[in-house]
Each structure stands twice: as C-alpha cells, then as structure tokens.
Amino acid sequence: MGHCSNLKMVAAYVQSYSFLPFALIYLSLVQIVIGCDGVRSPVAKWMGFSEPKYVGHCAFRGLGIYPGGHPYKAKVNYIYGRGLRAGFVPVSPTKVYWFICFNRTSPGPRISDPSVLKQEALNLVRSWPMELLDVMQNTPDDSVIKTPLVDRWLWPGLTPSASSNGVVVVGDAWHPMTPNLGQGACCALEDSVVLAKKLAAAIRGGQDSVDAAMQDYSQERWARIFPLTARSNLVGSLLQWDNPLYSICPFFFC
Ligand SMILES: Cc1cc2nc3c(=O)[nH]c(=O)nc-3n(C[C@H](O)[C@H](O)[C@H](O)COP(=O)(O)OP(=O)(O)OC[C@H]3O[C@@H](n4cnc5c(N)ncnc54)[C@H](O)[C@@H]3O)c2cc1C
C-alpha cells in the first residue's frame, strides 16, 4: 500500500476523535504520522496492537497544596502494607505529590465525583502514618485521580512493529507499562529523542530511508522497552503481595 493512501486511512480512522495528538509531518517528499496519543491510542489500535491488559491493581494520585510551605524533607517516603502501598514526595516548597496502589480484581466503575474519589483513597489508608494522611487531606478534591494500571507486552513475532507504512507510535501508545519502576514517561521521552535523531539523519534520503529509520527505531527501542515492561509488572506483583503474614511497615528513604 502506498504511503499517501495509508496516511489517508489513518486520518479517516481517527476522524471520529475530536483531536488527536499525532504529528502528520510533510518534509520534502516524505510524509509520516507519529502516534503519541497515550495508553488508549487509536493510532496503535489502527496498527493492530491489542488493548492494554489490566494488571490487578489501581492507583490513586494527588497533589497536596501548602500555601504557607510544607514541613517535609526533600525525600521520597514509601509505606508498604498488605496488597496496598503508598508514597509521598515534595515536588516544590508548597506542593507534595502522593500515590496509593491497591489490589482490585477489576478496575470497577468510573467515578467522576472527585470528593468521592478522595474519600475512597482516605478510606484505604485510614490508620496509616499521619504524614501521609496530612498530605492527602491538604489535597484539593479535583486533583485526585484514580487509574487502573495496565501494560502491553511486546512479544517478538506476535506484536506488530512500532512502525508500518509511514505510521509510527511512541510512548504509552506503543508500550504502556505499570508505574512500578517509574519509567513510562522516561521511556516516552527517550523514544522521542531516538526517533527524532534517526529521522533527522534519514530525511534527506527520501521515503525509503525514512522507513528504514523508523524500523531501526522500533528495533532499538524494543530492546529497552520489552524487558522494562516485564520487570515493572513483576516488581508490581511482588510489591502488591497480600500475604496475611505481611503487615503494615513504614519505610522511609531518600
Ligand atoms: C499511577 C502512575 C504513576 C506513574 N509514575 C511515573 C513515574 O514516576 N515516572 C515515569 O516515568 N512515568 C510514570 N508514569 C507513566 C507516565 O505517566 C506515562 O508513561 C506517560 O505519561 C506517557 O506519556 P505519553 O506522552 O506517551 O502519553 P500521555 O501522557 O498519556 O499523553 C497522551 C496525550 O494524548 C491525549 N489524547 C489521547 N487521546 C486523545 C483524543 N482522542 N483526543 C485528544 N487527546 C487525546 C491525552 O489527553 C494525553 O494528553 C506513571 C503512570 C501512572 C498511571
């Protein structure tokens, strides 16, 4: 299939979405689509990728606000419980980020009322260290979000390549991973840098050279992404272990 007709098909497919963060780039005679539309990417779906898989736990996240300054040291604080863990870290003199990961067999219904979400999060850690509860209580309702955690394993030979006929995916659109190693956004940025470098070097060589550069990107990044996705999933399973012998124990470290 020629690139023009392929790109027209992508455009037709995504037309049902009001706006999509993909770049349609025309440089000289070269046309490409870069799909960077996140975990539910229609571009990835169009390329044949499967839906990301729910891994059995969800996360709450929020930002505690202290207009007069917070009392916390600049370090990451982790608290581990049974099938439940939390953490908080100052991100500025007046803001403290926090998260809770908790086991749930299914993501459950979508809750749109932010005050209900915050209460649900507080209920999970009612008797946990007061520093955590303080940060959560200082969080405006509308900055609390709940996310079912998902990933997609890029099995060699079974999963489509990241690029095909002038269309390429980056970041979560290609490789959603659980946040247990804190690498999803880092990898999305790395993807962008690697792809940009390869395209810059290839663009003068025309469409064939650009196609080769995108394939090269796909292979190079796969070698980093696949093991990270698997490791992150495994670490999550271990950290979310809900063995009854394992009770709440706070660990604090930088
Ligand atoms: C609980 C949790 C904690 C995390 N912690 C970390 C961490 O510590 N470190 C780390 O590196 N990563 C972390 N991540 C992962 C990180 O958030 C993602 O990997 C990263 O945001 C992916 O970037 P992206 O640009 O590929 O996708 P996104 O950030 O999802 O960006 C995609 C964009 O596309 C937009 N979009 C999608 N579809 C449409 C549409 N139809 N119309 C309009 N706009 C659309 C979305 O609104 C969004 O703005 C965490 C994730 C979670 C869930």
Automatic annotation (TrEMBL):
UniProt keyword Glycoprotein, yes or no: no
Domain FAD-binding: 33-225
Record bears the keyword Protease: no
Transmembrane regions: 12-34
Example of a GO MF term: FAD binding
Annotated SUPFAM superfamilies: FAD/NAD(P)-binding domain
Pfam families: FAD_binding_3
Signal sequence coordinates: none
Entry keywords, A to Z: Membrane, Monooxygenase, Oxidoreductase, Transmembrane, Transmembrane helix
PANTHER family xrefs: FAD/NAD(P)-BINDING OXIDOREDUCTASE FAMILY PROTEIN, FAD_NAD(P)-BINDING OXIDOREDUCTASE FAMILY PROTEIN
Family per similarity comment: Belongs to the 3-hydroxybenzoate 6-hydroxylase family.
Protein name: FAD binding domain
Gene source species: Musa troglodytarum (fe'i banana)
